[in-house]
Design goal:
The protein is α/β, with parallel strands linked by helices. The protein folds into four domains: 2-124, Rossmann fold; 141-253, 2-Layer Sandwich (Transcription Regulator spoIIAA), CATH 3.30.750.210; 255-372, Transcription Regulator spoIIAA (2-Layer Sandwich); 378-433, Beta Barrel (OB fold (Dihydrolipoamide Acetyltransferase, E2P)). The protein is 35% helix and 22% strand. The protein has 13 helices and 19 strands. A six-stranded parallel beta sheet has the order 2-1-3-4-5-6, with helices on both faces. It has a five-stranded mixed barrel with strand order 15-16-17-19-18. The chain has a three-stranded parallel beta sheet with strand order 7-10-11, sandwiched between helices. Helix 9 packs parallel to helix 11 and helix 12 (309-322) packs parallel to helix 13. It is globular, with a radius of gyration of 22 Å. The chain binds S-adenosyl-L-homocysteine, iron/sulfur cluster and FE3-S4 cluster. Residues 48-49, 159-160, 162, 197-198, 232, 234, 259, 261, 299, 301, 330, 332-333, 335 line the site of S-adenosyl-L-homocysteine.
Length: 435
Amino acid sequence: MKAYIKTFGCQMNENDSERIMYLLENEGYERTYDIAASDLIVINTCTVREKAKNKLYGHIGNLKILKSKNRDILICIGGCTAQDLKEKLIEDFPFVDIVFGTHNIAELPELINRRVSTGKSICSIENNGFDPDLFKVKREYDFKAFVPITIGCDNYCSYCIVPFVRGNEKSVEVKKIIRNIEGLVSKGVIEVTLIGQNVNSYGKDLNEACTFSGLLEKVSDIKGLKRIRFMTSHPKDFSRSVIDIIKNRDNLVGHIHLPLQAGSNKILKEMNRNYTREDYLNIIENIREEIPDCSITTDIIVGFPGEERDDFLETLDMVRKVRFNRAFTFIYSPREGTRASKIKDYILSEEKKKWFKELLENQNRISYEENKKFAGKKFEVLVEGRSKKGANLLEGRMENNTIVNFKGEEKLIGSFARVKINRVKSFYLMGKIYI
Ligand code: SAH
Ligand code: SF4
Ligand code: F3S
């Protein structure tokens, strides 16, 4: 029996897919990358923007054809769109066998059995509370792993659907996280990425209080762990102690992903982000003072309802002031049920696209200029796999998260290589191995 999984969305979804694969393997399924050869298909969906949601619809026609050719194929839709649309997905697409929510991953084997024995499509989206099997995963990589430290989100940024589809924020207990990472290291993992929608608010809901920096310290103490990443940081909860610990510990990487979202205080307020542009700049100043080599990346939304040209120019100004290494930029996409979706939006979409392009051009230039600073220098990179940029090329990641492509043998994958940078682009570098 073969299972095919397609994952959209953030690291949380990628981690969920690794959990799904673990469960399916236990049920006797083997992973396939050929959808036409599969007995079971899982689409793990995202709905953070309309475009992300539409990726499901891009597949649905093909799923229907596959099902009409072979009625025994099981089609399962999970993730945030499933959580949002629930039974409606089965009503609209009767060939879908199972719809399961973001809290129902552990039920999947049982849902599959029930579907087979009853012959009826099933939708399971109830939130049955914290899942104790969070860490049982079939990992994509042997040498690096995601480690969820919080699930859900309580922040209700006014544009964002995540709190509605992922539930309230819950922190995983410290000792469970540490035990899990120790287990990973004993199996050869050298890099972990601690994930959560707002990692900085870690621990607030735990009986045994622990801050995020307290957790980082404990993770950093684990012997054999070479690189510790974390994302996403929220400026409103970002504390000075996180900067101090990154500065003092070698295995905590010099990369902070700190979504700005907007540069105008009026818009930040409307977004319910709970910080000002001055607060943000203050954090950046502290980071740069203490960790000069730290790379800083961000997320930005253009065209939030009520955003005017002057507000946008403040975002552009922040981009020029901060000089992000990289920015993930999005045009605002209204999500049903969120507060922002009810605000009247009178700026034309054409205008928003123009701003978006302007932002992109500025940021791409800055990314390029920042990358140029690496030219001719030598860095240690963790070799992650083959590069898509050309035959015989490998892809590795610098401590600061920048991608480097270079010629090398496949046996290097999963280990560190020293690379000298000889060419730079906005989004990646080219280099050469040196001994
Ligand atoms: N928890 C993280 C990111 C969550 S979603 C954080 O707080 O930063 C990833 C990014 O998608 C967000 O940072 C935001 O820039 C973008 N995003 C979320 N909702 C959006 C919407 N409705 N329209 C456009 N972009 C959105
Ligand atoms: Fe969404 Fe805001 Fe939570 Fe991030 S912090 S997931 S943007 S509500
Ligand atoms: Fe998308 Fe859900 Fe992540 S909406 S961004 S997959 S939490």
